[in-house]
Amino acid sequence: MTTPREFKYVGTRPIRHDGVDKVTGRASYGADVVWPGMLHGFVLRSPHAHARIVSIDTRAAEATPGVKAVLTGKDLPETTATIALGEAAIDLRDVGDNMLARTKVLYHGHAVAAVAATTIDIAREAAEKIQVVYEVLEPVTGIDRAIAADAPILHPALRTKGAASPGAAGPTNIASRLEFKRGDVDAAFAEADVVVEREFRTPMVHQGYIEPHACIARCGEDGRAVVWCTTQGPFVVRDACAAIAGLDPAHVKVIPSEIGGGFGGKIVVYLEPMAIALSRKAQRPVKMVMGRDEVFRATGPTSGSRVRVKLGAKRDGTLVAATASLWYEAGAYRGSPVGAGAMCALAAYKIPSFFIEAHDVVVNKPKVAAYRAPGSPIAAFAVESVVDEIARELKMDPIELRLKNANAEGDKAPYGPKYGPIGLKQILEAARNHPHWTSPLAANQGRGIAVGFWFNAGMNSSATVILDTDGSAAVVTGNPDIGGTRAAQAIMVAEELGIPVERVRPGVGDTDGSGYTDLTGGSRVCYATGMAVIRAAEDVRDQLKARAAQIWNVAVDAVGWENGRAIPPAGTEKAEAMTVAGLAAKMAHTGGPIVGRASLYAPMAGPAFGAHICDLEVDSETGQSKVVRYTVFQDVGRAVHPGYVEGQMQGGAAQGIGWALNEEYIYDADGVMENAGFLDYRMPVASDLPMIDTVIIEVPNPLHPYGVRGVGEVPIVPPLAAVANAMRDATGIRFTELPLSPPRVLEAIEAASAVSVGA
Amino acid sequence: MTVTKLHIETTINGEPREFLCDSHETLLSALRNGLGLTGTKEGCATGDCGACSILLDGRLVPACLVLAPEAQGRAVTTIEGLSSGDALHPLQQKFLEHAALQCGVCTPGFIVAAKALLDAKPNPSEDETRYWLAGNLCRCTGYDKIIRAVLDAASEMKESAI
Ligand code: FES
Ligand code: FES
User: Fold this and answer.
1) Which of A33, A48, A378, B133 is deepest in the core (most CB within 10 A)?
2) Average pLDDT over residues B96-102
3) Is the pLDDT confidence value at A1 over 60?
4) Is the pLDDT of residue A168 over 70?
5) pLDDT confidence tier of residue A196, bands split at 50, 70 and 90
6) What is the DSSP code (8-state) at residue A631?
7) Which of residues 123-152 of B touch A (CB under 8 A)?
8) E-strand spans in A363-503?
């Protein structure tokens, strides 16, 4: 074991470098730029949830004064390209079809045409003149309907991939079926003293980033395109734009704007290839900005679900067997996060025998996009609710039950690999020892706990560190900064070079100005891109040592490095330690400018766990509930900037609380979303929440030089069950369907009291 | 084409300004598109997110629900008008110190709304602050650090006023 490193900057809370621009309104987001000669694009969207497009007549729109270009699916080539995304792949044929329908519309709000005009009003009015003839089909608005024998089929060519259910052969809405198993489940259940089985449902919910999708693009006569957009992955956008708009990726440059939230929802393209194609037709830049209703209807969300979980335990609390059947809505095209959900479902527990099946189901709703730990919160809601029930049956403390079964280093994860050092037991112990767990509850209050897991991602990252003659440094990566990653990267450069963090300028490069870098997602930026930043800074340091060696006329290996200074070997004549600034000032005479670079592929990351304790107060007259106390415990490996680490933990918890209590896509029988606005799709506001306490646990990740683990995704996993378990504690009722909105809670409370009155 | 533009004279962040707008144009659009003041954000255009918060004659309003012609003869304060010279407003400073922003797109709206709160009530409680800011959505922070930043700014402004 090496002794833990002493840090000077890691673990401090400097003011973020991009902060002043953000508190003064100067920072430029997706919709904040104007390009000379710019046109405005408007998208015509389907009024039907499921229909065949018979014909589209755009002549009247094209003839409208001020209209410069009109686009339909026929104008774009069909692509078969895919983009690798970690283990998964983005199918660009589906992405293109989702962006602009070709033959069928598959959800209400699906784009069918786009217009570019000199003003947005002209573009909108012209779009309304486009004549689309539809052959309306029955919409499939949920899993139950989608898998019925007589269900309308969304994609006639779709066949179930993977371990198909017996008898499934022909056209289907089940895009894939996976199985995970270990041991003999039936025999294991036969030995259990307690068995609990429940079925859970959750509705679609949206990521809810406050900044709508927006972009501006220009495409010249030479087929070269420049795109400015709000995205988590400029390189993903570049490759997707090239394939969908039919350009050479070498001719596409993507400049990421500041990004107003993403949570996974700003990875795929919805507008950018359309803006390019419109610009190519019009030969002028085209700006496209979504309205909030378009964001709800045509982007995001994450899956609605149906999950059945059965757990068996011995009387002493040992979990012996589990089965789980997961059904996730993919929306209009295959690709729900059900596989990840299945892999995460039992990640916390040592269960010798289990069987999990996972189904990806297409329905006539928007194509789902990644949402913070995609798939895991839904699975955790079911599993952690059932674990809570087991604890109640056994009259065991729910933390003790979890601790008894918790996975630790060396245990084999249910999804395959052996765990390295993980902090699950540490967070549970911290929760048990925290005053929150034993504090008294008031009347009408209940307390719940739940844990959550996420793999975290590694993947491709690049970084450049540029030294200036005054000894300051710039660091550039290709990761848009959603939550303070620039500050973290500046801290890393400061740490490695020993220069003040304020003298490091962190920046986000465009696709021509940074090495290839996978998206900002998977909680990978501080971990994988951070590793590239550290190595690039080390590269600068090595070059500085070589310069010092040259100045002192000694061997490079003999040069030491301490506290941001090169140290001459003992006994070197007339040689004194040199600072970064001193060496930087001499760069021109010792070989020229110094640029450090690093690029890497991180095949793995450090997985992470969190535990949340929620206190809920329930008004039995109205069904209204309020979170009155909330504490988040999480193993973060190493907190580089604790302020932004806490921020991730608090923000994830708040999103999860919204999912648990209020948020849902509401559809009518025709498949039209009825609440496509913030008034009726109710996300938590400041008065809904208490302060969210955070307890940072640091079990260093051996794969990272500082021990960093991804932080951003885990905190949305536990809240659904933590809130539902608190609701169970407060009301005595086990809710198996989200959200726990006042009408649903009130109805259940009234039904329960009717039963007890009748009994 | 008929001429439909209206000529509006107003005061923005203390300076007299004129602009042309359509009669149905929102003040948010006029600020962002006509006047280049893009610090005021659009998150919903229906008055439900607070990203477009501005002060109109000192009163907190969502600029997306105000028609641009209504600015005639009135005083508009936007996020761009909060810092003075080279000094940030205490709220801006406290948002930075408390890490009260992540993506930052809600931040201008929160700071303007919080300024209106502190103008009206220099010493708000946590509860009052939460309810006052309930018209502003933040999806990133869970509000904890925002509330702390506002309360801290309030106590600092009170101290410096003594
Ligand atoms: S844009 Fe005005 S309140 Fe949302
Ligand atoms: S910081 Fe992103 S919405 Fe508030």
Assistant:
1) A378
2) 98
3) no
4) no
5) very high
6) E
7) 126-127, 129-131, 133-148
8) 445-454, 459-467, 473-477
Chain A partners within 8 Å of B129 (Cβ): 686
Residues 6+ apart with CB under 8 A from A322: A185, A309, A310, A311, A312, A346, A349, A351, A353, A354, A355, A356, A383
CATH number of A19-23+458-602: 3.30.365.10
State residue A80's pLDDT score: 83
Does one domain contain both B96 and B121? yes
pLDDT for position B67: 98
Helix (H, G, I), strand (E, B) or coil at B59: strand
A314, amino acid identity? K
Predicted pLDDT of residue A255: 98
Q: Which residues contact A574 (CB under 8 A, 6 or more apart)?
A: none
Q: What is the pLDDT of residue A167?
A: 58
Flag whether B1 is in a domain: no
Which CATH number applies to A433-440+609-759: 1.20.58.760, 3.40.50.700, 2.60.40.1840, 3.30.365.10? 3.30.365.10
Q: A689, A684, A574: which is closest to A632 by C-alpha?
A: A689
Counted across chains A and B, CB pairs separated by less than 8 A come out at 188
pLDDT score of A163:
79
CB-based contact A378:A339 (threshold 8 Å) = no
B80 touches chain A (CB under 8 A): yes
**Chain Cα centroid distance, residue B26:** 15
Q: What is the mean pLDDT of residues A522-551?
A: 95
* B144 pLDDT more than 80: yes
How does A573-597 read in b/e, with b if 16+ C-beta sit within 10 Å?
eebeebbbbbbbeebeebeeebebb
β-pair partners for A343: none
Query: Position of tokens 């079990």?
Result: A699
